[in-house]
Amino acid sequence: MLNKSPWLQELAQVHLDSASNSNYSLRRNQEAGNLCTFEVGSAILAVHEGASSAEKLNHFFQHYLKVFQADRSGHKLD
User: Fold this and answer.
1) Which residues lie below 8 Å from residue 27, measured CB to CB, with a gap of 6+?
2) Is residue 57 within 8 Å of 41, Cβ to Cβ?
3) Beta strands in the chain (DSSP E)
4) CA pair distance 76, 78, nearest whole angstrom
5) DSSP 8-state secondary structure symbol assigned to residue 31
6) Where's the DTW domain (predicted)?
């Protein structure tokens, strides 16, 4: 997305050191070391607001992924 949008290339960039791998499993071509947009937002929140706020978001995100996968496959969530 960045490479295809010249106006995005002009914005300031932030580098995040993430020790964790992405838990986002909906993208088929997910590369190791890359995070999805939600995970990046959570990492930025952790830096600015603390780990507790980010953990709440991550908990919600994990639940969302489970619900989405269950719905997509036609299964009920346990």
Assistant:
1) 36
2) yes
3) none
4) 6
5) P
6) 1-66
The first and second tokens of residue 54, run together, are: 């980010």
Closest listed residue to residue 33, CA positions, set 16, 51, 47: 16
* Residue spans per domain, the chain: 13-73
For 13, counting Cβ atoms within 10 Å of its Cβ (0-12 exposed, 13-18 middle, 19+ buried), the class is exposed
Torsion of CA 47, 52, 56, 57, to 10 degrees: 0
| Least confident piece of the model among 16-25, 33-42, 61-70 | 16-25
Q: Is the pLDDT of residue 27 over 70?
A: no
C-alpha distances (whole Å) from 63 to each of 7, 41, 42, 44 are 34, 17, 15, 20
Please tell me the pTM assigned to this model: 0.67
Residue 39 contacts residue 23 (beta carbons within 8 Å) = yes
